[in-house]
Amino acid sequence: MSSSLEKNMLILRSSDGEEFIVPEVVAVMSKAIKNMVEDECASNTIPVPNVDANILAMVIEFCKKHDESEAEAASDLKTFDSEFVNRGQEALYDLITAANFRDVKELLDALCQNVAEMIKGKSVHHIRIQFLGYQLFEILTSNFIWNIWCDRDFD
Amino acid sequence: MEMDSDESHPLPHQIILNILSRLPVKSLLRSKLVCKEWRHSISTPQFTKLHLSQSQLTTTHHVALLESRNPPSSIALRSIESHSDESVIEIHNSFKYSYPNSKIISSCNGLLLIALSQKTFIVWNPSTREYEHLGCLPHFLSFVFILSGLGYDKLVDEYKVVMAIRVSENNESDCEKNIYFYCYSSKCEGEPRNIKMDFPYTILKDTSATVVNGVPHWLVNHDRGEKSPVIIYFDFVAEVFVELTQPSYGHESLDISKFDLGVLGGCLSIVCHREHYVEVLVLKRYGAIESWTKLFVIHYENSGNLSFKTLKPLCFTKNGEVLMEIDRKRLVVYNLEKSSYRFVEFCHNGNGFKVVMYVESLVSPHGASKSKQRPYWNMASMSISSTSKPSSSRSSTSKIESNLSSSESSARRNSGSNWMIGKCFPCIKRLPAVLRGT
């Protein structure tokens, strides 16, 4: 098992140039990387643009845990997930973007669930401040709304 | 693909939908007010389906039972979350008139079919508080309902209700059964449509349907006089009753009073009362006889002084216990490993007791025509139409611009092309007035 792992190592390079050595089984939890590996269009080093070292380390930590703990009790994994996603908003948004871009379904589900929990039971005002707090500037200047309206097709 | 790291990118639309689909309906209705984008997203039929599938996945199932309250002029729907089965949440009461004999008939994807009185039926979504009256059936002197059920027609994406009545008129002849079938569909605005079909069955027990995956099921007897019961379901696409493959009950021949239908874990389940024990079978897959799987057995002697005549499994709780209804009047949580049980307390006046499982959903009881999305807020739609037509936008923009203070308009110029909506959000109260002035 371990020898086969040794062989199947991949190097992921974050947007700021840091390199992570990751077992292939862990790396392919990202559908985007999996496709690259399957299509054999990846050399040993896979660039992961748009994801910086900090966030990439978190994503790898998550994937490793999920890969290891397949046999473990589901409740343990749930606790891990809920602790993992319990982060500040900045990190949360970066993680969501990374998970979405790299297509890591488990992570995306856990993160979205976490954000949903944050919204649950909040007043409209709170949601605007908290959930869109990151975009509060946008709302106040309303670039945010404008961006969305521009991107929509109204049929 | 370009992605700025901060400031100006909101989350991708797909992610926002993903997050919103995990919210309970109450939060969703509130979230509609957060911004127009959300309001639009939440109102689409696609989102309704996404939310439904999500809430079916994440066990936010409720047990619903109607309660006639004091004063009896209102109906309350209580819901016991299957997670923490002790907590009873009153959802609300919403009808103007007194319906003391109302009763839940069946539940499907967040909709409840409720008989308010003998002949008045509504389809109700308790989460969104929308309801639709079903039209009256043609007037017969006297008739009895022999079956009724709510279901979902996947082909045309409609919720439908099937009902059958037996008319007892004076010149009743035995050979003719005088059974009339009616089908309501949400698109026909609650008007019944007569269907003609053969129905070689007799329903003795429960006339209300057990709905699994949007298909209503009943337990019936064949007219041929066989003792053992048959499970039938109504196919809304072909509009016929279809017989299911029956489980094998062993050599014992049991009559229909020994059986109960229920839903457990999203599968149709049949409860079989034997002499010393009760066994619960579930149908994992339609079509094959071996797809009936024995799920568990309750021995009377092991389970203390729990005794019952009828049993209807409702759902699994978080700890793997089974919530079930016994004798049509009590709810009990049964622990399969320890063979222990405890009753779920609730107050109920005993009138038309019926418990169904339901999930929260945004599904509308109205047809697509009625529940047509409300147009955007008036001002917004005007601004959209004006931006989509460059020539007209010029004229309307200049008019409004002239009415705004100079500081604001200069700020707008700085922010480039986005001035129109840019003013729309913070100045909700002002802009319509400006427009009225023009």
Structure description:
Chain B: This is F-box protein CPR1. Chain A: This is SKP1-like protein 4. Chain A: It comes from Camellia lanceoleosa. The complex is a heterodimer of chains A (155) and B (438). Chain A is mainly α and 155 residues long. Chain A has two domains: 7-119, Potassium Channel Kv1.1, Chain A (2-Layer Sandwich); 121-155, no CATH class. Helix content of chain A is 63%, strand content 8%. Chain A has ten helices and three strands, in the order αββααβααααααα. In chain A, helix 4 (53-68) packs across helix 6 (89-102). Chain A is globular, with a radius of gyration of 18 Å. With 438 residues, chain B is an alpha+beta fold. Chain B folds into three domains: 1-43, no CATH class; 55-359, TolB, C-terminal domain (Neuraminidase), CATH 2.120.10.30; 384-438, no CATH class. Helices cover 19% and strands 34% of the residues of chain B. Chain B is built from nine helices and 25 strands. In chain B, strands 12, 13, 14, 15 and 16 form a five-stranded antiparallel sheet that branches. The longest helix of chain B is centred in the C-terminal third of the chain and has 14 residues, at 390-403. The chains are: A mainly alpha (155), B alpha+beta (438). The A-B interface holds A 50, 93, 96-97, 100-101, 108, 112-113, 115-116, 119-124, 127-128, 131-132, 135, 137-152, 154 and B 3, 5, 7-8, 10-15, 18-20, 22-24, 27, 30-31, 33-37, 40, 384, 388, 415, 418, 420-426.
* Classification by helices and strands of chain A: mainly alpha
Query: Largest sheet of chain B, described in full?
Result: 5 strands, antiparallel
- Taking all Cα atoms into account, the compactness measure Rg of chain A is 18 Å
CATH architecture annotation of the largest domain in chain A: 2-Layer Sandwich
CATH superfamily of the largest domain in chain B: TolB, C-terminal domain
**What is the residue-mean pLDDT of chain B, rounded to a whole number?**
69
Secondary-structure element order of chain A, N to C: HEEHHEHHHHHHH
- Detail the poorly predicted runs of chain B: 1-9, 82-87, 369-438
- Average of the residue pLDDT scores of chain A: 73
Shape label of chain A: globular
Share in β-strands of chain A: 5-15%
User: Would you state the CATH class of the largest domain in chain B?
Assistant: Mainly Beta
Radius of gyration of chain B: 27 Å
Structural class of chain B: alpha+beta
SS field, number of helical segments of chain B? 9
Q: Describe the biggest sheet of chain A?
A: 3 strands, mixed
Helix content of chain A: 55-70%
Could you say what the CATH architecture of the largest domain in chain B is? 6 Propeller
Spatial order of the strands forming the largest sheet of chain A = 2-1-3
Helix content of chain B: 10-25%
Chain pair sharing the greatest interface: A-B, 39 and 36 residues
Protein name (chain A): SKP1-like protein 4
Protein name (chain B): F-box protein CPR1
